[in-house]
Amino acid sequence: MTRFGLALVTCVLITCSAAPLFAQEEVTPLRMADKAKLPPDIAKALDLWEDYVHYLRIAQTELSTSAGTAFLAVDLDPAQLLLVVDELSPYRDFDITLVRAQKLEGAVGDLAKKVEKKIHDARLSLAREGKRIRAAIEELDDGLRQRLLAQDRLAKAGEYAVPQMLQVLQSSTTEDRTLSPFVIETMVKIGRPVVAPLCESLDELPATTKQQVAEVLARIGYPMSLPYLKAEMEKPGVDNDTQQVLTIAFNTVLERTGIPADTTAAQLFLMLAEDFYKHRESLILDPKADFNLMWSYASGSGLSAMEIPTPIYFDAMSMRASKRALKLNPDMAAALSLWLTADFRRENNLPAGATDPSYAGMRSPHFYATLAGPDHIHPVLHRALEDMDAELALDAIRALRSTSSTRNLLNVEGSLQPLIAAMNYPDRRVRFEAAFAISESQPHVEFSGAQRVVPVLGEATREAGKLYAAVIAPSIDEINGTVTMVQSGGQYQVLMGNTIEVIQAQVSSTPGVDLIAVNTSPEQAESIIVAARRHFKLMSTPILIFTDADSLAAVNRRLGSKPMVFVVDKNAAADAITAAVQRATQSSFGAKLNDQQAQDYAVSALMILKKLQLQHGDTFNATEAESALTEALKDTREPVILGAGATLATFPSVEAQQALGQVAISGDVGVTLQVDLLRSLAASARMNGNQLSDIQIDRLIDLITKTPAGDLADAASEAYGALNLPTSRGVDLIVGGK
Asked: Within 10 Å of residue 70's Cβ, how many Cβ atoms?
């Protein structure tokens, strides 16, 4: 816009509005005669903007969408756009209208988001213009009205205005010295947006400016400044005047927090890091923006900012605060663990294609975690489990597997044993990785939770589509009705009983239970939950309680808050019951595994189970997974069938060898796989002797006699020979020439 145009608009504003330009209320609209004096594009945009907001407020969605779409199409530069919405329009509280509109579905909500983004981008664009910021600073001493206008523009610039305002405070020129008091007042008026850059600069400022900044921080009173002020107070060699100002500022802010006065700067930085990690909304200026600023200060160049992608902003800032705590107190273990935690989560949350400028030149989070060692990784895993952050838990478990001895892995001497707790985590990936880590460490010490390792390994071998449910109800009719409701959510193989004890007796013969459906009184349901959580195979199984509508609220309050417990009205609509069954079952699965991931987990679990069985250790009983392995022989994935056969070959039971023999001899699998299974059968016979049934032996002989020379015939004869049957049977095959 030309200088003449701006002067004209200013004249119109002064003439037509007695209200302050920054008031959050409607002001008198421009008269038609005054609008005629505006440039055509601005006048058109103003009309469309007023129509858009007006129609939104009276819920005329079609008209608002039409006006809003046309408004976005008007070609305005950022200054012109903000002139329309902030200064010429009577709707000074339009942001409230836009927030409400964004909650609506469809075109109305989408358009409101686009409008808000365009306004937001325009503000950022103007805020970065150094000349505009400097001009506003220079207008601070041009009289009351001009000062108010200048302060309003600087407030819109927010944190972007701080570098130049701080330069004024450090300047020795007469002009800037005159401006300094106005700059201080403006900083206080802007408030929270200036705190972060001022805090980051405090350490490097000369004494006089440091005192001025401390005064500003005290008057704003934002708790984020506490660790920075305390760090300056703890520095050796601070002059008395500066120390006094810092102390007054610190105590002024401290009064509003309830934090003990003797808290050290390191402890305060750790508290700040915790607040960042917990995503305290008060610590981020623009949570809807694509990025937020991380400030740094260097002598000679002053304040500078890095644009941190908003999804990782909290984690990057938590890392920075943790690092400050460690610099002040290198022995602060909690700060190191939090730094590692935030580092992992920062990497996990970094948007695809985005970069983190604060991490330039750094190594991978895994590098730093393994460098820190298991004592500092256990708190990372503990926090991940508490926060239900599966990706972070997986990161921590992988770091533990890379660095830990058995005792360190289990943290036997520590107060936290999160790896053991991870085997009950709702996401199966976490359960599997935890069980892998523990079993691979070959522990020779007793520890609570050891009984969970083998069932979790068995669970990892299962094919995703095969589900098991346990149904508990007091009568046959109620059991059958509950089974029908459960089956609406999927094809389950069902265990049935009227007590949890009856179910527990059946569980040992299943590879695992995916859902417990309870249709009893609330008192009985509560006792079932307690008993299930004590059983090593049911500790992490979801429990779905069926109740009637009259008791629904009470049962939900009493039991619904327990982990992995869900409540549903048994008389609800069929689709609601189906959804409840599916939701409860899926709650223990976590992120969906693709076919390759599921197969990799299954094969790894089978290898570990075989190793555990061959080691004959006292800590784990691999045969507890026998039912899961028997089921795995029916899998559709050849590597899983092969692994199950090789593992079952090491098991001493009759059932294990006969299950292996059934698949190996039947020929229901491909020839190549059948050859491998027959060799596993031979291995089973060598280790455990002949435990096949007579019918199976007859079928093996029949296979040998009917199979032409080749790998299959050789493998079948190897299995037969390993069975060490009576001589006469082998002679018959040889003499008969087969």
From this structure: 16
Q: List the one residue out of 615, 216, 207, 587 whose CA is nearest residue 441.
A: 615
Kindly tell me if the per-residue pLDDT of 591 is higher than 90: no
Given a contact cutoff of 8 angstroms between Cβ atoms, the answer to whether 264 and 328 are in contact is yes
Q: Which of 337, 475, 329 is nearest to 396 (CA)?
A: 337
For 94-146, write each residue's pLDDT tens digit.
Answer: 888 898 899 888 899 999 999 999 998 887 787 678 888 999 999 999 889 89
- In the chain, count H helices and then E strands: 38, 7
Inter-residue contact 440 to 402 (CB < 8 Å): no
Calculate the dihedral angle through the C-alpha atoms of 266, 271, 276, 280, rounding to the nearest 10 degrees: -150
Q: Which tokens hold the place of 619?
A: 């800590």
Which amino acid does the sequence have at 442?
A: Q
For 544-586, the pLDDT digits (tens) are: 999 999 889 999 999 988 989 999 999 999 999 999 999 999 9
**Cα gap 601→599, rounded to integer Å:** 5
Residues 6+ apart with CB under 8 A from 681: 645, 649, 657, 660, 661, 664, 665, 719, 722
Q: Virtual CA dihedral for 498, 499, 500, 506, nearest 10 degrees?
A: -60
- Which residue from 388, 391, 393, 458 is spatially nearest to 420, judged by alpha carbons? 393
C-alpha–C-alpha distance, residues 248 and 657, integer Å: 81
pLDDT of residue 449: 82
Instruction: Give SS3 for 654.
Output: helix
SS3 content of the chain, % helix, strand, coil (to 5): 65, 5, 30
Q: Which of 604, 641, 647 is nearest to 625 (CA)?
A: 647
- Report d(CA 195, CA 534) in Å as an integer: 52
> Where do the H-state alpha helices sit in 278-413?
310-328, 333-349, 365-372, 374-386, 390-403, 406-410
Residues 6+ apart with CB under 8 A from 484: none
Rounded distance between C-alpha atoms, residue 440 and residue 388, angstroms: 25
Dist. CA 89–CA 93, nearest whole Å: 10
Q: Which residues are CB-neighbours of 550 under 8 A, at least 6 positions away?
A: none
| Burial environment of residue 690 by CB neighbours within 10 A (0 to 12, 13 to 18, 19 or more) | middle
- In residues, how long is the chain? 738
> What is the C-alpha separation between 366 and 364, in angstroms, rounded?
5
379-413: pLDDT as tens digits: 999 999 999 999 999 999 999 998 877 777 877 66
pLDDT for residue 727: 55
CB 663 within 8 A of CB 677: yes
Q: What residues pair up with 497 in beta bridges, in sequence order?
A: 472
Q: Which two tokens stand for residue 178?
A: 């005159």
Calpha distance 532→509 (Å, rounded): 16
User: For residue 179, which of 213, 137, 134, 130 has the smallest C-alpha distance?
Assistant: 137
E strand or H helix that includes residue 130 = helix 130-138
**CB-based contacts of 328: which residues, under 8 Å, 6+ apart?**
231, 234, 264, 265, 266, 269
Other CB atoms within a 10 A radius of the CB of residue 53 amount to 23
Residue type, 248: I
Q: Tokens representing 348?
A: 């996990």
Q: Domains of the chain, with CATH numbers?
A: 3-127 (no CATH), 465-586 (3.40.50.2300), 605-735 (1.25.10)
